Structures are given as C-alpha cells and as structure tokens.
Amino acid sequence: DTAVSQTPKYLVTQMGNDKSIKCEQNLGHDTMYWYKQDSKKFLKIMFSYNNKELIINETVPNRFSPKSPDKAHLNLHINSLELGDSAVYFCASSQDLITGELFFGEGSRLTVL
Amino acid sequence: ELKVEQNPLFLSMQEGKNYTIYCNYSTTSDRLYWYRQDPGKSLESLFVLLSNGAVKQEGRLMASLDTKARLSTLHITAAVHDLSATYFCAASGAGSYQLTFGKGTKLSVIP
To answer: Are A102 and B45 inside 8 Å of each other by CB?
Structure first.
C-alpha cells in the first residue's frame, strides 16, 4: 500500500492549459504539503495544509491553487501553465506540524511545451 | 530567513572510502533531517536529529548534529555503489513549521 500517492506521474501539456495533480495519503497524518523541485533538484515548499487548513502559502503565483477536501487529500490545480512551471511536484505528509518528518509521494513530472 | 547550505554539492568517491557531507544552517533550528533521493524517484527519510549532540547510524551512514555550530554531518563509511544518490539535509527554524532544504549532494560511488 503506497503511503503517499500522486497522480498523474507524468503530465505533458501546452502553455496556457490548466492541469491538476492529486495527492492522497493513507498514513493518518494531519499535515500535507506541496513541494516543487526544479531542474537543478532544488526543493522549495509551495503550500502546507494542516487538518484541511492552509498554513503555509509561499510566494507562489496565484495560478496555483491547492485544495484539501479532507485531511487525507491535497490537490494542486494550475491555471494558464507557463514554461517555467515545468518541474517535478512532490506531495508530502507529516504526522503533524510539530513532528516535521516528511513522507514524500513519487512526484509528478510536469512538462510545459 | 533560514538558509541551509550543503557541501560538497557533488561528490565522487571510490568504493571502500570514507567521506563526510556537511550541512550548515544559518539560524537556530529545532530539528535537522536527512533525506535520500535516487534518480527519478521520491525522497526517503534517513535520519531525524532533534537535539544537540544527537547521533544516529544506519548501516554505512551516520548523521550527527551540533546545534551550537549549526552544523550537521552525514558520514559515509566504506562506501558501496548502492549508496549513489542525492542526499538532502533540511532544517526548520525555531518555532517554524516550515522545512528549508539544502541544494543536495549528488554522491557517485565508483567501483
């Protein structure tokens, strides 16, 4: 049973399109995150939700909109995709905000043409 | 703002040799984490270090934390090819929920 699962694993799309990535965790964790890993492997946090409540919202274009329907799910919707959005997006979860140890999904590689 | 710096960023070492990866962070941190990422794969948690002087070992890897020096090290003993991966350290600022990652150290172990 995959602990943190993301779909799709790969997305290839044209500039200007809208796309969504879904994430689910079955660990019973309270906190979920979206991270972006660029081509140089640098990891940067985008959003964090704790019990469905937005906790961290880094400087991310408002074309990116996270949604957490329940504490086991955190989805990411991206509008009007740009070339610079090409990256690997990782979902992660942690037991709570304090514990901090992250469990990552397998990543969703987004390529914008 | 917390900054986390790792060095070296690239490391090529022969099997059987020892080496250390360093992770410095700029402000007081409650916790320090080490992760491993294989090419095209997810990140796997290796160590969680929660207090000054903490030392944890798993196989050929040993991690330590010196909060006074704001330094964590990941020591590799008698490297084997299977250890080839990118290793990230991450820290959270005191009272902060947010993890800041270093740029990663890409380790290649050569036969």
So the answer is: yes
